Amino acid sequence: MQWWHAILLGVVEGLSEFLPISSTGHLTVVEKLLGYPIDDAGITAFTAIIQVGAILAAILYFIKDIVRLAVAWFKGVLSKDARSNPDYRLGWGVIVGTIPIAIVGLALQKVIEGTLRSLWVVAAGLILWSVVLWLADRRSVRQDAPRSAGPRGEESMTVVDALVMGLWQCAALIPGVSRSGATISGGLFRGIDRVTATRWSFFLGIPALVAAGGLESVKAAKRLTAVAVTNQAGAVSLGTATLIGTAVAFVVAYVSIAWLLRFVAHNRFTAFVIYRVLAGLAVVGLLVAGVVTSR
Predict the structure, then answer these.
(1) Quick check: is 270 in a domain?
(2) Which of the pair, 145 or 186, is modelled with greater confidence?
(3) CA-CA-CA-CA torsion sign (136, 198, 253, 222)
């Protein structure tokens, strides 16, 4: 792989993993445009492992919250008195909210990695889920109206809220939908404010991404050793390219998380809705023009 391809793909992963625009869709399209076969064992391994960089960025960014919820949950399990702490309830929320995607992901693994792995599916996911995100955002705006009771913050989050958001997260198994876009939409429809819905898209996403990314990385790392290395000018081994891409994804993802939380505090998701539609139409255009193939 060309070293600058590794950097570019790391940037794409870091930017798109947590923004509501679909990292799978963007990586698939960019890899195809760069001439890589997306079903190749080496490229599949590269894609799986660089995702770990983005996951580590999220863990580092929210480490204080993760420790706070974990400590409160363990204390609540061991002591009845400690269960009055709202963080104990939120800890259960993370656990319960993660279960749906684990079950659905394992049950539909072959379909996700096979039938759904098409750029036509990516384009459809980008465009159609834009409508869902737009509707969810409109609901949030109505709750901001003067006579409204207002959206709910994290202090009012319940285990049921987390479970419902976790069920919405399952939609992200369809390429192009976006894990954060699905979870945030679910939160907004539950009457949760934009910042809290976005924060919980991370809280619910981290366990799922750690489990899926870790498993894929272990399997993918073994594949890298079997990949032939070319001697093209400017090329590096796929193993080196993976390290570069992972490091870049980590840095870019950390910055994008901080930016997203500031952005949603003062802005609606309209810009992301418009971008998703345009990106989906661009993919359709590339497919129709024959620039890229669907698989």
Answers:
(1) yes
(2) 186
(3) negative
Q: Is 262 exposed, middle or buried (0-12, 13-18, 19+ CB in 10 A)?
A: exposed
pLDDT in tens, 22-50: 998 899 899 989 988 877 777 877 888 89
* Residue at 277 is within a domain: yes
Distances 34 to 187, 219, 266, 272 between C-alpha atoms, Å: 36, 24, 36, 25
Domain of residue 107: give its range.
3-289
Predicted confidence at residue 226, as pLDDT, reads: 53
pLDDT at position 65 over 50: yes
* The two three-digit tokens of residue 258, written as one number: 């901080």
Q: Which of 107-111, 199-203, 226-230 has the highest mean pLDDT?
A: 199-203
Select from 272, 117, 265, 278 the least CA-distant residue to 198. 265
Q: Residue 166: what residue type?
A: G
Q: Is residue 295 part of a domain?
A: no
